[in-house]
Amino acid sequence: MSVGKTSREKVLELLNGKRNGELLCFSGMGNVTTEGMKQTGIRFAESHTDASKMAALAATTHKLFGFECAVIPFDVAIEAEIVGCPINFYTRSHPLEILYPTVKEKVIRSAGDIKLPSDLSRAGRVPLVTEALNLLSDDLKGAVAIGTYIMGPFTIAGQTMELSDLLKISLKKPEEVAEVLAVYTELVIQLAETYSAAGADYITIREMGACSDVLRPALFKQLVEPQLRRIFDQAPHPLVLHICGKSNGIMDSMNRVGAGALSVDQKNDLRETRKTIGPKPILLGNFDPFNILVKGTPSDVKRAVQECVNGGVDAVWPGCDIWPTVPTENMNALMQAVKNARKGRN
Amino acid sequence: MTNDAKKDELLKKLADGVLKFEEEEVATAANEVLALGFDAYEAIMNGLAKGMEEAGRLYEEEEYFVPELLLCADALYAGLNILRPHVKIEDRQKSRGVVVIGTVQGDVHDIGKNLVKMMFEVAGFEVHDLGKDVPLEKFVEEQLKTNAELVCLSAMMTTSMLGMERIIKMIREKNPEVKIMIGGAPITQEVVKKFGADGTANSASNALREALKMVASLRKMG
């Protein structure tokens, strides 16, 4: 029974491998909405470089809809910025325009080019994210789980090196890629320690760059799995491993790295996944955060929640960042459908 | 060996060289095509492009992945750079169509876009490549400037494909007849319908096939 427990406690229990029968609805990735931006008057483009705006905006999805987490940051360029890539924040774009920061220039060509900062807590926007984690802790007072995320080593490599070069040398000279990944693995572990110390309750490692739309599963196993193992072995838990895109072919690898929970998107066949990993691992997913949540109707949302549940997820969790323009009625329908499914399960 | 048998052998060498990403073999075969006086355009279409089409098929079957496709593309370009200057003037003037292509604003992924662009170049389209992270209005301006029959929009991430819907509206307002193809990991037939595009494709070869169909239907209407 989970009566009397806070939402945060329930989320953390689940991520630590303890099922209590209650179906939760939360995410390890971005989930702010334009409704939240309206309520707080915060422009999306400003929220990436201002800790108090980031924290205030991150709390809105819980406050407005009861979504069971607050997650920062909102973009995926923090790590690339740490190793020296200039970032485009699109601050001059139209105020209503939703654009995620992107890497302007890829400055790394080989492992020798990567300089990890001597004091990571002061590098790039790390101090900003840690300050926002502190502010969120003050605001939510332990009632709601605070999540953050870090890109996986292969994804960071793809963001900081010319992607076509990285992919070609993955085939031709995998040992050179392994060197790059080893350095980025160190960065991920240090960053996880920094975020955890600043108050992050759980961390999602997003390794979408190595999904099977891009990389052969055998190469994932050879190059990426050993690095992920090191991360999940050394970084502070609870840790979620997320891979969006095709992932069924690498499920056995994903399952071997020692994650507290595995997260997949709508391209994953959940039944096949359960066949591969068995009943024990915590599986999060695989709600389509755009085609259903933004573009669908409330009844599409309801149907999709049921499909997730039937597929055997332990929490209804969007397969990627929630696109901010999600209609209010769909967010409400999501939360209501999860509540109803919860009753059906108990 | 008869002339035809020799030609077939070279076409096969070109196709196989692309498929197995053997740049040197492709370059050697391309030079031999020229030395023996065979038609360069035929060698491009029935040799190089055929190899890439087979690579696309292997990608769909999950035999090949993106790294393999990139190496195939390098091998294809090794042959194309040798053969293209020798394509007969009348073949060169027979443009298959004019295309504007680019990755939409907020997205810096251009591998898929570059593969599609390559197939268009191979087939003899006039390609205007706007690059990556392209502001929405730039697509509209370029279409008007070049009078392109086809506009191709690419996005790798769900979070960046949204701009496509607005570009499509903007282009249709100015020029309702232009064909619009969208592509990238998050694009499905459902998205095509919702955004009001004309089509998508899951590989560069299929993108070319779709494009040829669209341009043909436009020309029939015209």
Provide a descriptive summary of the structure in words.
The complex is a heterodimer of chains A (346) and B (222). Chain A is α/β, with parallel strands linked by helices. Helix content of chain A is 45%, strand content 11%. Chain A is built from 14 helices and 10 strands. Chain A has an 8-stranded parallel β-sheet with strand order 1-10-9-8-7-6-5-2, sandwiched between helices. Chain A has a two-stranded antiparallel sheet with strand order 3-4. The radius of gyration of chain A is 19 Å and the shape is globular. Chain B is of the alpha/beta class and 222 residues long. Chain B folds into 2 domains: 3-92, Methionine synthase domain (Methyltransferase, Methionine Synthase (B12-binding Domains), Chain A, domain 1), CATH 1.10.1240; 95-221, Rossmann fold, CATH 3.40.50. Chain B is built from 10 helices and 4 strands. In chain B, strands 2-1-3-4 form a 4-stranded parallel β-sheet, sandwiched between helices. In chain B, helix 2 (23-35) packs parallel to helix 4 and helix 3 packs antiparallel against helix 4. The longest helix of chain B is centred in the first third of the chain and has 21 residues, at 40-60. Chain B starts with a helix and ends with a helix. The mean pLDDT of chain B is 91. The chains are: A alpha/beta (346), B alpha/beta (222). The interface between A and B is medium-sized, with 30 and 28 residues. Chain A: It comes from Candidatus Abyssobacteria bacterium SURF_17. Chain A: Its cofactor is Zn(2+). Chain A: Residues 6-340 form the Uroporphyrinogen decarboxylase (URO-D) domain. Chain A: Its EC number is 2.1.1.-. Chain A: Keywords: Metal-binding, Methanogenesis, Methyltransferase, Transferase, Zinc.
CATH class of chain A, please?
Alpha Beta
CATH superfamily descriptor of the largest domain in chain B: Cobalamin-binding domain
Oligomeric nature of the chains: heterodimer
Tally of extended strands of chain B?
Answer: 4
Count of domain modules of chain B? 2
Instruction: List the uncertain runs of chain A.
Output: none
Rg for CA atoms of chain B: 18 Å
Largest Cβ-defined interface: A-B, 30 and 28 residues
| Fraction in helix of chain A | 40-55%
Q: Output the helix-strand order of chain A.
A: HEHHHEHEEHEHHHEHEHEHEHEH
How are helices and strands ordered from N to C of chain B?
HHHHHEHEHEHEHH
Strand content of chain A: 5-15%
